[in-house]
Amino acid sequence: MTTQQKTATVTARTGRNRFARQQAAAGWLFTLPALVLVALFVGLPVLMAAWVSVSGWRGRGSPFSGDVPFVGLDNYQTLLAGGGLATQDLGTALRNNLWYVLLVVPTQTVVALLLAVAVNQRALKGRGFFRTAFYFPSVTSSVAIVVVFLFLFGASGAVNQVIGWFGVNGPNWFADPRGVLHLLLGVVGVDSGGALADHDVLGISLWEWLAGPSVAMSALIILAVFTTSGTFMLLFLAGLQNISAEVGEAATVDGASAWQRLRYVTVPMLRPVLFTVLTLGLVGTWQVFDQVYTGTQGGPAKTTITPAYLSYTASFEQQQWGQGAAIAFLLFFIIVVLTVVQRAFLRDNR
Amino acid sequence: MKRTRALLAAGATSVLLLTACGGSGFDDQGSGGGQQTSGPAKLQVLIGSSGQAETNAVTQAADAWAKSAGDSVTVTAASDLNQQLAQGFASSNPPDVFYVGSDTVASYASNGSLLAYGDELKDKDDFYPNLRDAFTVDGEFYCAPKDFSTLALVIDEKAWQAAGLTDADVPTTWDQLASVAQRLTTGGRTGLVTSSEFQRLGVFAAQAGGSLVTDGKATASSAQMVQGLTYVKSLLANGSMKFAADVGAGDGTEALGTGKAAMTIEGNWIVGGVASSYPDLQYKVVKLPAGPAGPATFTYTNCWGIAADSKNQAAAKQLVEAMTSSDQQLTFAKAFGVMPSVQSAADGFRQQFPAQAAFIDSAADAQALPNEAGVSDVITDLNSKLEGLGTGDPQQILDATQQNLEAALK
């Protein structure tokens, strides 16, 4: 390489570098307002809540004043190993929410995918109407939907009237604390947990962990699937639009049935969307609050309390702000861990 | 050149944003300091109102007082009292005067938000003693009871007559209550319907002589408590009593109004509830029957809390004295149906509302639920178990409550 060539490449490189630097600076500049807003309204409150969760603040005056004691992990200790009511409540809330997540996330994902595939059919007449209809619950206020569901699932509500035509005596949904799994086990003659009843996790016996969602929680589960499927349908729909028709045609030529096309062609190609939907679903369902706050207030028999709702009542009703913040962080931790686990499962290994 | 300008603009914007949100967010104010001593006081009053009637009545009373005292008062009806109070206390700028329920007084007292001014009131001995106890925490009488209500037995007159019962059959013992409930249970109507919470069912435990807390000690699983709940369970077992949720009603008032119940146990708020939702219902109110340990009922009450961080405590106290005077309370009773918390107004109330005499007559036998910090969570937990009382074991339910209560009272 001659000296001339060397100088040329160096100049080119520095030129490129300067340009890249300017680009980066411009990029930071334009995102700065948004970053500042996020830092102020998300980052800072998170740090403040983190302090509250390790402090003995009881809600009077500023949590950052000099006379608020630092109590270390006492709040977490009380919640996780205290053995008192706080632990039992957290255990109950986690159990309720776990069943809720286990049932809502897969159901809403499958329903959303099927709806998306259905309204993506080119042969379907009135596609626009169906898209709107399926999406409508997602844009309706959740409070309004909860109120409607309270009527639908009342003791003499529409749901019970309809299943009454088939001779089924419907439960009083929102007042029925019995666990669905316990009911099913009762049908096959298992009525008590035996040894399971003697072992406690978070103040709740293993038999109680196995109760399944209560009948009241089941109504909330149906509500959640009803309201969120439309949103996720849109995401899947966007993903489906990105899959070119030729792929499907090629599969058909190779003799794949409609089911096989969905199973071996469409779903694998939707993997990134699927990851998004599952993550959003997981985060959303672990934080369920408004349905509980407006609909059931945690009743019947605490079978619909969730960690988010518990965090609220601990803070605003019992003035145990430290515990309330600690519950929120435990919930955050659960969500992060589960998202990471799920990511590992869905990662493209090829 | 252009870029520099853009940079400057963006920088300036961010700085502006930062300063706008900065301010003095967390001022370290000491508590109770800085009382305003001169000039007219500006009082903020926050109430958890039952409706427009109450809001108007309180606003009028506050305005009248403000005029005579030369101060100004703003009355705000809270949409969520607990939440708004919490925000006020956390910001060191709470409302000066506000409603406090007897179930939350201890948690606000324990974090130092409340001023304990009860003993400084001129007419403190005129309040019913059990109401004073309801707002006494660790020996300190915190705040003046605003009004109160007691639970009584409310009977649907038509169902009563249809079952061939007369005034002579009004139950005064447990056995009589069981038999009239049985006679009143026909078809779609259940003899006695109440909500399943301890706030109602507990009256039977009290009539047996039981109490959740005795002299600061947990006594939730005492034989008397078990006896009370066992009696309730026996009524549930023979179908003469059901819980409101099981007949598809929100509470006892709704069950009575919709004809699903012949009797219920409610406080005198049922009067307003029936008038607005079931104007055709004819009903009568009688005292609850006496149990093995004599007559007993529960009382529910709120007080006028004054914030420890209020700058106008002296004016606030005067306002509370005006609000709790005998005449003013009778005015409130007329406006929105509450019972005066002072004994000197009892006769006036009886004259005004003869049909509600049973409520005020029960005041002597009324107990407030224990107000120690943490007890309200235990009661919430007990309520969640009581929903299954029909098939559950009272002893087991109360043993679990005893454990929680011991932990809470530590």
Report the strand count of chain B.
15
- Share of residues in strands of chain A: under 5%
Number of helices in the DSSP assignment of chain A: 15
Q: What is the strand content of chain B?
A: 15-25%
**SS-based structural class of chain A?**
mainly alpha
Number of helical stretches of at least 4 residues of chain B = 17
The shape of chain A is globular
What helical percentage do the residues of chain B reach?
Answer: 40-55%
Helix/strand-derived category of chain B reads alpha/beta
Give a short account of the largest sheet of chain B: 6 strands, mixed
Concise description?
Chain A: Residues 94-342 form the ABC transmembrane type-1 domain. Chain A is mostly helical.
Description:
Chain A: The chain crosses the membrane at residues 26-52, 98-120, 132-155, 215-237, 269-289, 321-341. Chain A: It comes from Kineococcus endophyticus. Chain A: InterPro entries: ABC_transporter_permease, MetI-like, MetI-like_sf. Chain A: It is found in: Cell membrane. Chain A: Keywords: Cell membrane, Membrane, Transmembrane, Transmembrane helix, Transport. The complex is a heterodimer of chains A (350) and B (410). With 350 residues, chain A is mainly alpha-helical. In chain A, 70% of the residues lie in helices and 1% in strands. Chain A has helices at residues 3-53, 74-81, 85-119, 127-139, 142-152, 158-165, 180-187, 206-209, 215-241, 245-253, 258-269, 271-286, 290-296, 307-316, 321-346; strands at 200-201, 204-205. In chain A, strands 1-2 form a two-stranded antiparallel sheet. In chain A, β1 and β2 (204-205) form a beta hairpin. In chain A, α5 packs across α13 and α12 (271-286) packs antiparallel against α15 (321-346). Chain A is globular, with a radius of gyration of 26 Å. Chain B is of the alpha/beta class and 410 residues long. Chain B contains 17 helices and 15 strands. Chain B has helices spanning 2-22, 52-69, 81-90, 105-110, 129-134, 157-162, 174-184, 198-207, 223-237, 252-257, 269-277, 313-323, 326-336, 346-352, 357-361, 375-386, 394-409, and strands at 42-47, 72-77, 97-101, 136-137, 140-141, 144-150, 152-156, 190-194, 213-214, 217-218, 241-243, 261-266, 283-286, 297-306, 366-368. In chain B, strands 1, 2, 3, 6, 14 and 15 form a six-stranded mixed sheet that branches. In chain B, α2 links the parallel β1 and β2. In chain B, α8 (198-207) crosses α9 and α16 packs antiparallel against α17. Chain B starts with a helix and ends with a helix. At the A-B interface, α1 and α3 of A face α1, α3, α4, α16 and α17 of B.
